[in-house]
Amino acid sequence: MLENNDLPFLPVPDLQDTTQRYLRSVKPLVSSEAYQRTEVAVHEFLQPGGVGEELQRRLLSRAADISDKQGKGSWLEEWWNEYAYFSNRVSNCFYVNFYFGLQDDPRQPTQIQRAAVLTQAALNFRQELLDGSLTRDMARKTPLCMYQYRYLFNTCRYPATPRDYTIRHTPTPGEADYTHIAVACRGQFYIVETMVAKEGKDHHPPTHRMLTTDELALRFAHVQRLAATQTEVVPLGILTSDTRDQWAINRTEFLAVDPRNEQMLRQLETALFLVSLEDESPQTREEFSRACWHGATGINRYHDKCFQLLVFANARVGYCGEHSLSDGTTALRLCKYMLTQESDTALPPQSCEQEQELSLNHGSVTLLEWVTNDLVRQLVSQSQAYFYRQVAAHDIAVLEYDVYGKDNIKKLRCSPDAYVQMAIQLAYYRFHGTCRATYESAATKKYSRGRTETIRSVTEASRAWVEAMVSQASTPEDLAALCREAIAQHAQSTARCTDGFGVDRHLLGLKYCLADHEPTPALFVDPNYAATCHWNLSTSQISDECIEEYGWGEVVPDGYGIAYLVKDKSIHFNIAALCTMQAKNFALHLELAMYDMHELLGGKPLDRPADICMALPTFPRPTELTVPLDNSADAVELDSFSTQSSEASDTSYTISPTLNGRDIQQAADEMGSTSPESRKHERKPSCITLVDGEGDGKLGDSTSPSWIARYFGIPSLPFNRQSP
Which residues, 6 or more positions from 350, have their beta carbon under 8 angstroms from its beta carbon? Predict the structure, then answer.
């Protein structure tokens, strides 16, 4: 079942169709002059016998080769993993992993009880995967790809330069299966074996059985007692929250201290998954969302593990998923399974938490006792500083819109997802005064090893509607017609993307078909190509009542990460962004848009809260903007900026817009030593200040979207990442 040999392969779209869809997606985002430049680039790309036809031929050949090897994946799989994840050097914690906040258990269990019940449920899910009894994922009557489930357990991502890799750990011949879990508590990691020996009867050899919930509770309580006695803790897990290049350096240094470190780290990396027993007790929605995203201290996490089950002191539960080889829909199936089993499982008695000794014949708990030195402790301290800077730089706004939900939207004869997408467009236009590139994730799991495609939410129809809403020059009837047209076009685009006929994955495949020595076609160096892939709005939805929170970080520094849950009676939004982007003010505009659209499309008038009946703030055009750096790369690009100040501190670096550029070596000199060896453990600036030196208000304008890419000596900002 996991091989999906019965599913079709991801198609290669028609070249003409893709480029026409691309042009339609560019037009509402750029000026008419800029659009004409893109038209010329596309026309050149499509010349008979030209580069476009040759790249399409190569891509079709690659797809045909793969289709001849049943069960070997799609033409996109390897490239997508590299582009979206393994070559991405930003922090897994803040910019790649996704999280869920799960429903509470109405029985009000303790932290230990809930950890035990949900852990056993996850183990049962794995057992169903192994024995083939897990029912197949379906979209109505269409079977979906199950391949991602093989990476839900015993899988770990590894930091490396220039790109990461992931290993799904399976035992070698003669080696026992990996059936242990890792447990994090107070910055320390413990190993708990989940299978115990069972004596055979009638001279049969002993077999193994899974731990009961009582036995798991006993072990989790023992972990807590052990952790409370540790005084000098080096919280190694915090290293995984750093940038990928920094984590790669730090991991190498850590392993070099003592051979035992590699042996112990391997136990963590081969574990089924990680259970984090957190000290926090998040109460509000924002507290819960932040706790699931990164936590208060970050020391109880290992962000390279396939997934982390987060159990807080007040028994609230979160799920944090490593995103490189699996998507949110796969994790959702596991979470629903765990919560369903939880409701049918008796809680272990609280007396388990008072037991002082573990029964010897049931095994014990093993602490991973790292061997460290001054350098490792210094690196841990630096990663902790990076973590706290990122936490301080970010804001989350949680909007629980419970006035109406999916049921009411359907009564208005609208697609609920397209409806919400247009609300996001209206909110952004009202707040920022413009339309910007918007990414919505569409699952392509009807194909073998399908992942996602990008729904480009901004269309000429959506732009016409939001402009008309703000100008107030149209009648309500005309506004409603414009809104319905925008919703209809988005729904059509969603259907095409789910079928594998989007824009972005096809263009990515064509670009990857270029040989290293070949010139890049004008289509891909056209500034509008970068501008329309600069995802100021990175959005995705999950629709299930069992999920209370859902989110991830923004993918560009002047953008928002918007996760939303479309439920029957409510719609939940989680908006993550840098503090400079004023996520809470954006949420006010989003709430207003939800009220306005309902009435515009014929819904009954709704009572509005006072805070959105007054004039809402608009986003100021800043004269300067300070954003945190990822501190990862020695080489970074400033396409439209150059250094303004010759003073380089260890906290900031200031640049201003210019088309002239500066001497590369001079910029490097201003950063300090350019020797790779001397720079090996040197922390680069923690933030960068962009200044509107021309006073024209174009700071952060997406006509120059590639703020930071590859310019020698200045660390990079995260950009062009994907949502779950």
Answer: 110, 112, 113
- Residue 165: CATH number of its domain: 3.30.559.70
- Phi, psi (deg, nearest 5) at residue 124: -65, -40
In this structure, how many other beta carbons lie within 10 angstroms of the beta carbon of residue 485? 16
CA angle 381, 711, 506 (to 5 degrees): 100
- What's the predicted TM-score (pTM) here? 0.87
Mean pLDDT of all residues in 337-358: 82
Per-residue pLDDT reduced to its tens digit, 601-626: 999 989 888 877 777 888 876 544 44
564 and 595 in a single domain? The answer is yes
Please give the Cα distance from 101 to 87 (Å, whole number): 28
Q: Which residues are catalytic?
A: 323
- The HSE-up count of residue 118 (CA atoms within 13 Å, CB side) is 31
Alpha-carbon span 461 to 421, nearest angstrom = 13
DSSP class of residue 598? H
Inter-residue contact 667 to 643 (CB < 8 Å): yes
Confidence of residue 14 (pLDDT cuts 50, 70, 90): very high
Number of domains in the chain: 3
pLDDT tens-digit readout, 640-686: 333 333 233 333 333 333 322 333 333 334 433 334 343 344 444 44
Tell me phi and psi for residue 204, to 5 degrees: -75, 150
Asked whether residue 439 falls in the same domain as residue 549, the answer is: yes
Residue 184 belongs to domain spanning: 104-197+211-393
Same domain as 442, residue 347: no
DSSP collapsed to 3 states, 309-344: EEECCCCCEEEEECCCCCCHHHHHHHHHHHHHHHHC
> For the chain, what percentages of helix, strand and coil (3-state, to nearest 5) are there?
40, 15, 45
User: Which two structure tokens, joined as six digits, stand for 224?
Assistant: 């807590």
Q: Which of 30-39, 206-215, 289-298, 360-369 has the lowest mean pLDDT?
A: 360-369
Q: Which two tokens stand for residue 280?
A: 């926090």
**Average pLDDT over every residue of 17-28:** 98
Q: What is the mean pLDDT of the chain?
A: 86
- 61-75, 219-233, 616-630, range with greatest mean pLDDT: 219-233
How big is the chain, counted in residues? Answer: 724
Residues 409 and 389 in one domain: no
Whether 522 maps to a domain, the answer reads no
Q: Could you tell me if residue 553 is inside a domain? A: yes
Q: Which two tokens stand for residue 616?
A: 């809402």
Q: Residue 350 region, left (φ>0) first, then alpha (ψ -120 to 50), else beta?
A: alpha
Residue whose C-alpha is closest to residue 6's, from 145, 100, 107, 114? 145
Asked, as a colleague might, if the bond just before 162 is cis with ω within 30 of 0, I would say yes
Block residue for tokens 């803040």? 94
pLDDT score for 271: 98
Q: Any bridge partners for residue 305, and if so which?
A: 156
Residue 642 phi/psi, 5° resolution?
-140, 170
State the pLDDT confidence band at 114, using cuts at 50, 70 and 90: very high
Q: Minimal CA–CA distance to 546: which of 366, 338, 347? A: 338
Q: Is residue 328 within 8 Å of residue 96, measured between CB atoms?
A: no
Residue after which a domain boundary falls, among 393, 421, 444: 393
State the pairing for strand pair 547-551/98-102: antiparallel
